[in-house]
Amino acid sequence: MAKPVLLKALSGLLPPTHYNRIIFASVCHNGIEYSTLPNRPESHEEFEATVKNVVEKDIKDNSVMIYMKGVPDIPRCGFSSLAVRVLKLYDVPFGARNILENPEIKNAVKSVSNWPTFPQIFIKGEFIGGSGELKEKLKDVAVTAKKEE
Amino acid sequence: MGVTKEQVESSLKAKLNPSHIEIIDTSGGCGASFAIEIVSEQFEGKRLLERHRMVNAALEEEMKEIHALSIKKAVTPEQWNQQQQQSNKSDAASA
């Protein structure tokens, strides 16, 4: 089975406290209300930079981070659904954000990855691609891990 | 509105000079979703993600209208020949 092999390969990358899936539903739902912060952005440029920081923090804090349409339990697009299924198949814990609920995040992710479509997946801070590229990547990791055994 | 299969094909041909290309409209006719197989020498020495970026870049204009692009294959002519031989072999074996 690929599962334990892959998990072993990835286990070094994951802080133990981080094993559970994290869904930022509440954050997404309310939007990111910077306007209530004391150091609120003065300009649109500043606001964009702040959102970009959120994305950069996401991909730093989550070994696997997916920006998708819908939430993991209710994906709103076939490709987002596929990506989530692949991650679950390999038992990979991941953080997720729903870009349909936050266009600012959507644009920030696009500018970080320079990739036109969603879902978008980042592993260890590195942009991997969409669902197709994710499938290839995890297959490769599983194969390499098996060889090293 | 959407994009036609022919538009996608001609943009890819113009920019990536493929030796083989296959485009399938997976949108059911509305032109918003395509699956692509492409073989080009320009993929030589490039990683998967870079190859897919090249395809995305070649379709920059079309992507504004396309909802989903599934790149089934982006390989070099050498890889393509190997894959063809392998699939021929397995076809022969199963026959």
How would you describe this protein?
The complex is a heterodimer of chains A (149) and B (95). Chain A is an alpha/beta fold. Chain A has helices at 2-11, 25-30, 44-61, 78-89, 103-113, 131-148, and strands at 22-23, 64-68, 70-71, 74-75, 95-98, 120-123, 126-129. In chain A, the strands form two sheets. In chain A, strands 1-5-2-6-7 form a five-stranded mixed beta sheet, sandwiched between helices. In chain A, a hairpin with a 2-residue loop joins strand 6 (120-123) and strand 7. Chain A is globular and about 55 Å long. By secondary structure, chain B is an alpha+beta fold. Chain B has one domain (5-94): 2-Layer Sandwich (GMP Synthetase, Chain A, domain 3). In chain B, 47% of the residues lie in helices and 22% in strands. The model of chain B has no long low-confidence stretch (mean pLDDT 90). Classes of the chains: A alpha/beta (149), B alpha+beta (95).
Write a compact overview of the structure shown:
Chain A has 149 residues and is α/β, with parallel strands linked by helices.
Which class do the helix and strand fractions of chain A yield? alpha/beta
Give unreliable regions of chain B as ranges: none
Helix content of chain B: 40-55%
Q: How would you write the strand order of the largest sheet of chain B?
A: 1-2-3
**Which chains share the greatest interface?**
A-B, 12 and 13 residues
The number of distinct structural domains of chain A comes to 1
What's the number of helices of chain B? Answer: 4
Q: What is the second-level CATH architecture of chain A?
A: 3-Layer(aba) Sandwich
The string of secondary-structure elements of chain B, in order, is HEEHHEH
Regarding quaternary structure, what we see is heterodimer
Task: Spell the H/E element sequence of chain A.
Answer: HEHHEEEHEHEEH
- Average pLDDT level of chain B: 90
CATH 4th-level superfamily of chain A? Glutaredoxin
Distance between the termini of chain B: 45 Å
Rg of chain B, Cα atoms, Å: 14 Å
Mean pLDDT of chain A, as a whole number?
A: 79
Family (chain B): Belongs to the BolA/IbaG family.
InterPro entries (chain B): BOL2 (IPR045115), BolA (IPR002634), BolA-like_sf (IPR036065)
Protein name (chain B): Protein BOLA2
GO molecular function (chain B): 2 iron, 2 sulfur cluster binding
